[in-house]
Automatic annotation (TrEMBL):
Domain called Leucine-binding protein: residue spans: 26-326
Organism of derivation: Nitratireductor arenosus
Signal peptide bounds: 1-22
Organism superkingdom: Bacteria
Keyword Isomerase tagged: no
Protein name in the entry: ABC transporter substrate-binding protein
Keywords in alphabetical order: Signal
């Protein structure tokens, strides 16, 4: 009996001497599980849960942000109380801006899968927030439009138009500036009226200007109407747009051959084994499912590699293998490189175009 007591004391001493991080990781997910963005939050929860289950040892703690500042702060404090090591998720800037000071104060890094606002990482040196981002930056699309089309349309008679919205204007202006710097001169630049019953007048103006190609900063419905109007006029016009073209089909569908500059469908580039495993459990790899899965993979790898060192240091210096391929964060915490590509619509789906 005395020996058993000695062994118990010895075991307790050994446990006390183990590093504080010897326990299995606890990963937090902060997502909008209520309100208008609940569908996106459900996608994040499905992906994060699947990754934690695939790991087999990690614990996942999920909290609702409600996509609000109050919800973000409440979720952050609740995750700290639950003893999480890292946090993933977030869709809304209001929620993460309220949560980051709280999580940063507790030394907990955050891997963001949904917030695109540039300032989130641009201000990292000033704020000191340990934030890393898998979501694209807000300016990444405009930069990709400019880079890809100035290369692809160098010898074409192209026009640049936009629908007057902030989104459309920013894309069009980025291309215009890049074209000017590249010594390219658009044959036509204009702002068109969106949400008209048809865009036949716009197609006529483009034809009169001699444009064979046009970039349209606008939504899918207007670009579809422009394509149909050009077809009605017998006008062979190559139309390109931004990732808004991935929106659900309207009554007027895009004409086959329409180009899109956007990121790939994550399911098309993800590990096929993981995609198949998700589908076997009834989870379609839509929206934020796969980014959330990859974020948990990164969080677990960083936590286990770090040991007693700060996990943020590991996140900043490590190349991670994930369901979405290799991920490395740059010096401000964004996913290094670009995911934007050129795609062509075949009448049903977008297929990637390889530029020569």
């Amino acid at each position: 009996m005395r020996m058993s007591k000695r062994l118990a004391i010895l075991f307790a001493a050994i446990c006390a001497a183990l590093p504080a991080h010897a326990a299995e990781p606890r990963i937090g997910l902060a997502a909008p599980l209520s309100g208008a963005s609940a569908l996106l939050g459900a996608q994040m929860e499905a992906g994060a849960t699947a990754a934690a289950k695939a790991d087999g040892k990690a614990a996942l703690v999920v909290k609702d942000t409600g996509c609000s500042a109050v919800g973000g702060a409440v979720a952050a404090n609740a995750l700290i109380a639950e003893g999480v090591d890292l946090v993933t998720g977030f869709v809304c800037i209001e929620a993460i801006e309220a949560a980051l000071p709280v999580l940063s104060g507790a030394g907990i890094p955050v891997i963001v899968t949904g917030v695109r606002v540039d300032a989130l990482t641009d201000r990292r040196d000033k704020t000191g927030w340990p934030v890393f981002r898998l979501a694209p930056r807000a300016d990444a699309e405009a930069q990709a439009v400019a880079r890809i089309l100035t290369r692809a349309w160098r010898s074409e008679l192209f026009a640049i138009i936009d629908d007057g919205t902030i989104y459309g204007r920013e894309l069009a202006e980025s291309l215009r500036v890049a074209a000017e710097l590249a010594g390219l001169d658009p044959v036509f630049i204009d702002t068109f009226r969106p949400q008209l019953p048809n865009q036949i007048a716009l197609a006529g103006r483009l034809r009169k200007a001699g444009a064979t190609h046009v970039f349209a900063g606008g939504d899918r419905a207007d670009i579809a109407l422009l394509g149909q109007a050009a077809a009605e006029l017998g006008y062979p016009l190559q139309i390109a747009g931004g990732e808004a073209l991935r929106a659900a089909r309207d009554e007027a569908d895009l004409v086959a051959g329409t180009l899109m500059i956007g990121p790939p469908d994550w399911a098309d580039i993800a590990d096929p084994g993981i995609v198949a495993a998700l589908r076997r459990t009834g989870v379609e790899p839509d929206g934020y499912v796969l980014p959330a899965y990859a974020a948990v993979e990164i969080a677990l790898a960083a936590r286990r590699t770090a040991g007693d060192a700060p996990a943020a240091d590991v996140l900043a210096a490590t190349r991670f293998e994930t369901a979405l391929g290799a991920v490395r964060f740059n010096d401000i915490g964004d996913w290094a490189g670009t995911r934007y590509r050129l795609f062509r619509y075949d009448g049903q789906t977008f297929e990637q175009v390889d530029l020569e």
